Amino acid sequence: MKRRALELGLTVHQPATFKSPEALAQLRAAEADALIVAAYGLILPLAALDIPKWGCINIHASLLPRWRGAAPIQRALLAGDSLTGVTIMRMAAGLDTGPMLNSRTTRIGPTDTAKTLHDRLAEMGAELICESLDDFSHGRIREVAQPAAGVTYAAKIEKSEALIQWQQSAEQIHRQIRAFNPWPMAETRFKGEQLRIWDAEPIEAPALSGAAMPPGTALSATREGIDVVCGSGILRILRLQLAGRKPLPAAEFLRGQRLDGMRFADP
């Protein structure tokens, strides 16, 4: 957005905080009808929220009040939500607590990742904010208070959350892989090295004879993928990446590796 603004000859300000008198004066001088916020890292104080004529409007990547906070896309994927969307809301003093102005829903597919979902929601959000601003300008905007029921919080993603615990179910690990693609990427250890998992799918677990294999054990490794025993179920790894190498489909990765019976380790 900054690059495009500069190409168009627009003035760009990047205040480190909106708590300073200088930043607030800059905002007042703009005489803006609305201040639009999308994935913005700074807290806007009440003094800033009250300056624009229509207020500060947030494009939020969830169906509020579910997943207020910093990482709504990843948290929706981790929780196994089937639906998400974009909510246009007027910002208030609390964390994503303001009244809702507009919303749009999308289904979360079984192969959606944080990237594919982000890109789809970004497009929806761009369309929806334009509609909402048009409603403002024609006096059609309607505010709806967020319901008290169903509030959840999307805490900031910590890199440590991307470490795969093979004792979890294949479905849980599959969600983790999708939620942390493209960052920070779900990972495990292979021969003591970092191994990132880019793509996988839970598969029906075959009937196993003899002693149960511990979670993390490679049950089989074929062109179709690397089947790994989980706490419950089997996860088939389809695309993976060793540290310092490029991501590879399982079939290519196996040309230089032998995995049958090997155990992936928790870090």
Summarize the model shown.
The protein has helices at residues 2-7, 21-30, 46-49, 72-79, 114-137, 170-179, 250-253; strands at 35-37, 56-60, 68-69, 83-90, 100-107, 153-154, 187-190, 193-203, 218-222, 225-229, 234-242, 248-249. The chain has 267 residues and is an alpha+beta fold.
Top CATH class of the largest domain: Alpha Beta
- The first-to-last residue Cα distance is 39 Å
The number of distinct structural domains comes to 2
Q: Tell how many strands the DSSP assignment holds.
A: 12
What does this structure look like?
It is a single chain. This protein has 267 residues and is of the alpha+beta class. It has 2 domains: 2-154, Formyl transferase, N-terminal domain (Rossmann fold), CATH 3.40.50; 159-256, Formyl transferase, C-terminal domain (Methionyl-tRNA Fmet Formyltransferase, Chain A, domain 2), CATH 3.10.25. Helix content is 25%, strand content 24%. It has helices at residues 2-7, 21-30, 46-49, 72-79, 114-137, 170-179, 250-253, and strands spanning 35-37, 56-60, 68-69, 83-90, 100-107, 153-154, 187-190, 193-203, 218-222, 225-229, 234-242, 248-249. The strands form 3 sheets. Strands 7, 8, 9, 10, 11 and 12 form a 6-stranded antiparallel sheet that branches. The chain has a 4-stranded mixed sheet with strand order 1-2-4-5. Helix 4 packs antiparallel against helix 6 (170-179). It is elongated, with a radius of gyration of 23 Å. The mean pLDDT is 93.
Keywords:
alpha+beta, 6-stranded antiparallel beta sheet, Methionyl-tRNA Fmet Formyltransferase, Chain A, domain 2, 267 residues, Rossmann fold, 2 domains
